[in-house]
């Protein structure tokens, strides 16, 4: 299925596309012939990633600074994108999370997770969907979720709530927008370590690395997720709609992945809160 031109003619927006899994997916999409738009809050990083993709694959890649927590900014970004040509695919990848005792979360801390993970995904989906429907243009929305949508997950409650809400959006819009030529799909990745996520979710003091408890004995490779994403947004997956594909080596079948934190002492939690950047 991964023929060289699988995604040729597709114009794809990847939120949070400057680094981590977003950049890995963007790289694979470019390799398979897609034209890309990547967005995020750090323009310099986005420009570096875009330049590397253009150099490696000769494809058209645009970098747009956009804080997806701001609906007006999302709308302005979509106007800018559509002024050139419509999107064909939206990848809701940008998100935020960190571990914390839920009763210790301030409202501001909870909003820092909900705003990009839930509101940002919703704003981008609404903005793209509205334009697709008005222009009678087929589209695909791929949302990167987590297995907390199945198991719940202690100590990352706002993230689990947000991801579960985006799964509800995925299932709901599959029915509402399917007749309009728009598919909505999702991936629930297990442990695919990135520098950003590892720093927030695997601080010093946690038990052994996530791969040690995985039934397959390892963590995921970024290319594996990028390949699955490429398939789901391609015409090869044209009859998959409203579904979330779990890609975690079977780890959620053993637990949510947060059980080791139940053994943490109050002193460990105090130390973690003290180490977290303020603001």
Topology summary:
Elements: E1 11-15, H1 20-31, E2 35-40, H2 43-57, E3 61-65, H3 71-82, E4 89-92, H4 107-135, E5 139-144, H5 148-151, H6 157-177, E6 182-189, H7 195-201, H8 222-233, E7 244-247, H9 266-275
Parallel strand pairs: 1-2, 1-4, 2-3, 4-5, 5-6, 6-7
Helix pairs in contact: 1-8, 3-4, 4-6
Task: Please provide a written account of the structure.
This protein has 279 residues and is of the alpha/beta class. It has a single domain, classed as Rossmann fold (3-Layer(aba) Sandwich), CATH 3.40.50.720. It contains nine helices and seven strands, in the order E-H-E-H-E-H-E-H-E-H-H-E-H-H-E-H. The chain has a seven-stranded parallel β-sheet with strand order 3-2-1-4-5-6-7, sandwiched between helices. Helix 3 packs parallel to helix 4 (107-135) and helix 4 packs parallel to helix 6 (157-177). It is globular and about 55 Å long.
Summarize it:
The protein contains nine helices and seven strands; from the N terminus they run βαβαβαβαβααβααβα. By secondary structure, it is α/β, with parallel strands linked by helices. Helix 1 packs across helix 8.
